[in-house]
Amino acid sequence: MVTIDSLADQLGLGEKGFVKMDIEGAEMAALEGAMRTMARHRPKFAVAVYHGYENAQRCKELILKGNTGYTVEFRGMYGWFHPPRPYMLFAW
């Protein structure tokens, strides 16, 4: 397993990146490993955040910690559990 930061460095990824995640609740760990990439390149994100109630808010906080210039929106609702939770997070 590698971090997004190490992968971006290794492959020379630059601007206009896009990261899509649905990794069964491990999104926070992945975002923690992308701080440098968010600060330098500010890729767009589509992240599944329905796995745990706190997951959505924590992912938003991590993205804004990586780069305060992001706009973050939640879209869709997962209503299987109570209370309902956001389904997807989009950041650009």
Characteristic terms for this protein:
4 helices; single chain; alpha+beta; 25% strand; elongated; Rossmann fold; 4 strands; 92 residues; 4-stranded mixed sheet
Overall description:
The protein is an alpha+beta fold and 92 residues long. It has one domain (4-91): Vaccinia Virus protein VP39 (Rossmann fold), CATH 3.40.50.150. Helices cover 36% and strands 25% of the residues. The protein has helices at residues 4-11, 27-32, 35-41, 55-66, and strands at 18-21, 44-48, 72-78, 85-91. The protein has a four-stranded mixed sheet with strand order 1-2-4-3. A hairpin with a 6-residue loop joins strand 3 (72-78) and strand 4 (85-91). It is elongated, with a radius of gyration of 13 Å. The two termini are 25 Å apart. The model has no long low-confidence stretch (mean pLDDT 91).
Task: Record the strand order, biggest sheet.
Answer: 1-2-4-3
So what's the CATH class?
A: Alpha Beta
Tell me the distance between the termini. Answer: 25 Å
CATH overall fold name: Rossmann fold
Classify the helix fraction into a percent range: 25-40%
Approximate shape:
elongated
Write the topology of this structure:
Blueprint: H1 4-11, E1 18-21, H2 27-32, H3 35-41, E2 44-48, H4 55-66, E3 72-78, E4 85-91
Parallel strand pairs: 1-2
Antiparallel strand pairs: 2-4, 3-4
Structure described in brief:
With 92 residues, the protein is α+β, with helices and mostly antiparallel strands. Helices cover 36% and strands 25% of the residues. The mean pLDDT is 91.
